[in-house]
Amino acid sequence: VSRELHPHDTVIPLGRSAIGGRDFCVIAGPCAVETPDQLRATARAVKNGGAVALRAGAYKPRTSPYSFQGHGPDGLQLLSEAGREIGLPIVTEVMEIADVDLVAAHADIVQVGARNMQNFALLRALGRIGKPILLKRGFAARIEDLLLAAEYILAEGNDQVILCERGIRTFETAIRNTLDLAAVPYIKARTHLPVLVDPSHGTGIRDLVLPMSLAAAACGADGLLVEVHEDPAVAWSDGEQSLYPAQFDALMAKLGALLPIL
Ligand code: PEP
Ligand code: MN
Q1: Predicted ipTM?
Q2: How far apart are the CA of 111 and the centre of ligand 1, in A?
């Protein structure tokens, strides 16, 4: 992953856009695939707002085993249908080696969540598929741990890796996680891989998503992973941090004004 060995930025094609290089990419969508209507409405909202890909989980890593765990294969089916219908590539999480082939068959980018950042067997398996991997920083991981986790994927032959800063756990409890934005320019100076920021899980608070998104753009991130829900009040997971469609539009408008002057 080192820039010393590979000085040029890795650019990962994604639909009509690309992650890394010159573009600033916004990937958006609900935390989870809930219902066909929820997904379709949210997909339409993020597409209209200017997202380049649709995110949503069919396999959800929940703190409690009694919380909604995602629809699994049926969720993947709904998600890929929604993506095709709306004309957006899709990003979705895989949690287990046994599901890698199925998830990779549906996803344009396969996500590894914070909790699995050091699931080395899973990372190795993902190193052997021909799909880009979005690797999220573990909430107790140092930057070095993240870079070495990425190395597991590259070492197996898959160099299409995107890193994602999504906040780490600190002594601060007012905010869900502490979004480590200093990690962005630090990592970008040392690796050729693109770096996204997830201000949704990074803060857990809807009203902090806009300011932290602008900050992410200002510190050199290659894009964002943002949670948006057609009706966050009834979301099955992460409603408190999910943007209303109108807030997503406002975020995209502010980004549109900021990016040209950076
Ligand atoms: C997610 O993006 O849906 C998610 C579960 O994030 P994280 O793994 O960063 O908690
Ligand atoms: Mn979520």
Answers
A1: 0.99
A2: 9
